[in-house]
Amino acid sequence: MRIASFNINGVKARLPRLLEWLEERRPAIACLQEIKSQDETFPTKEFEAIGYHVETHGQKGFNGVALLTDGEAAENVVRGLPGDPDDVQSRFIEADVKGIHIVNLYLPNGNPLPGPKFDYKLAWMERLSIRLTELRASEKPTVVVGDFNVIPEDKDVWSVAAMKDDALMQPQSRDAYRTLLNDGWTDAIDTLNPRGGVWTFWDYQAGAWQRDHGFRIDHLLLSPECADRLEGAGVDKEYRGREKASDHAPVWVELRD
Hints:
Layout lengths: L1 E6 L7 H11 L3 E5 L10 H5 L3 E6 L7 E6 L4 E5 L12 E6 L2 E7 L9 H23 L3 E6 L12 H4 L7 H12 L3 E2 H5 L8 E2 L11 E2 L2 E5 L1 H4 L2 E6 L15 E5 L2
Helix pairs in contact: 3-5
Family: Belongs to the DNA repair enzymes AP/ExoA family.
Organism: Altericroceibacterium indicum
Enzyme class: hydrolase
C-alpha cells in the first residue's frame, strides 16, 4: 500500500499537475496540504472521475487539507486538531482507510519569530503531541503525514547558515518534533536515508530548484504497527521540475500488506 503526501500549494492552480501525478503514481491514499479552497469549491468531481473518494477540511484562500482514497471511502473522519476550540485554521484531518488510521496535517510555519505566529506553532505542536500519544496508546496501525514545517536536523537542509534564523529550524521546533519520535514514531524517509541530503521543498525564489537548494519538511511518521511493515519511502522529486509545479514534491511510504 502506497500512502503519499503532497503540499499542493493551491489545488486549483495545480490541478493539472496533481491529476497527472495521481494517474502516474496511483497512491492508495493521497494526503494534500495547503489546498487553499473551501470544501464547497474543492474540485471533487475531477478526482472522482479518476476513481478517488474525497474528504476535505478546507478554508478560503489559504491552509486546508484533503484526503483522497483510491476506490474506497474513508471512515470515521475527524476534522480539526483537538485541544483548542478557538483555533479556526483548517490544518488537520484524520480517518480510517483500508485498515490504517491516517493523520494528515499542515503544521504552522511560525515565521516571523519571535511573535504570535511562532507561539501558535509551538502550541499547535504540543496539541499534536497529545493527540499522537493517544493514537500510540490505542495501538491502531497509524501513519501521520504532511507538511510539518520543521527541518529536523542539519543534514536535512542545503545550508544551515541560510536557514538558521527561520522558524523551521529553531531549537524549540526541532525539540517538539524530536518529542514525537521519542514517543515511538518512526520517520520513514530518515530511517531509509540516515545520511540526509533528501529535500522535499525548493523555494520559488533565487533559483532554488535549479541550484538544488532545498530542505526536508514533509514527513511520514509510522506507528510501531506500521513501522514493522515499512517497504520503502521516497520523494517524487521530478514533479517539482514540471510546469506550474508546487514548491513541494510529493513524498510517499510503501507498507507491506
